[in-house]
């Protein structure tokens, strides 16, 4: 699993950074809205060659990192944005599957309910570690 740390700056976060998909020149932008109680408090945008190719509003409590790991067995790292964590360090994420062939991104609804997710490609299954 690869991780990019984003520095936390005051109450509003608006970060744009290069991704691991260097050959595609994707950039990801996270814009945090101050309301942690709202159902969506962050805007995720993905750009290619300075043109926005994807946008979604998501909820998260710790917008300081994004993880990259393959979650569908296509050998392309997908995007996981931190959703929340519990007192027992059970983390959950919003998952976006990445299709670099078609420059498309697909949010997997309900993935936030899986704590400490791991994908086992050999068996094509998800594991949750509680």
What does it look like?
InterPro entries: Integrin_alpha_N (IPR028994). 0% of the residues lie in helices and 50% in strands. The protein has 130 residues and is mainly β. The model is unreliable at 5-14 (pLDDT under 50). The protein has a single domain (2-128), classed as Periplasmic lysozyme inhibitor of I-type lysozyme (Lipocalin), CATH 2.40.128.460. The radius of gyration is 14 Å and the shape is flat. The strands form 3 sheets. Strands 1-6-7-8-9 form a 5-stranded antiparallel β-sheet, with no helix packed on it. A hairpin with a 7-residue loop joins strand 2 and strand 3.
Task: Give a quick set of tags describing it.
130 residues; mainly beta; Lipocalin; 5-stranded antiparallel β-sheet; 4-stranded antiparallel β-sheet; 0% helix; flat; Integrin_alpha_N
Number of strands: 11
How many domains? The number is 1
For the record, the CATH architecture stands as Beta Barrel
Strand content: over 45%
CATH class: Mainly Beta
**CA radius of gyration:** 14 Å
> What is the strand arrangement across the widest sheet?
1-6-7-8-9
Look at the structure and name the CATH superfamily.
Periplasmic lysozyme inhibitor of I-type lysozyme
Return the structural class. Answer: mainly beta
Model regions low in confidence, pLDDT < 50 over at least 5 residues: 5-14
Helix percentage range: under 10%
Q: Sheet with the most strands?
A: 5 strands, antiparallel
CATH topology: Lipocalin
Described by its quaternary structure, the protein is single chain
The count of helical stretches stands at 0
- H and E order: EEEEEEEEEEE
Distance between the termini: 18 Å
Mean pLDDT: 79
Shape: flat
């Amino acid at each position: 699993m690869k991780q990019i740390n984003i520095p936390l700056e005051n109450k509003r976060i608006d970060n744009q950074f290069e991704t691991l998909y260097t050959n595609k020149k994707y950039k990801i932008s996270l814009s945090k809205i101050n309301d942690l109680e709202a159902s969506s408090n962050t805007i995720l945008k993905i750009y290619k060659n300075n043109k926005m190719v994807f946008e979604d509003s998501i909820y998260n409590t710790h917008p300081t990192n994004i993880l990259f790991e393959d979650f569908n067995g296509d050998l392309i790292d997908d995007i996981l944005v931190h959703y929340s964590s519990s007192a027992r360090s059970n983390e959950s994420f919003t998952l976006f599957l990445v299709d670099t062939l078609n420059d498309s991104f697909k949010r997997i609804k309900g993935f936030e309910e899986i704590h400490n997710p791991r994908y086992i490609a050999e068996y094509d299954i998800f594991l949750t570690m509680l």
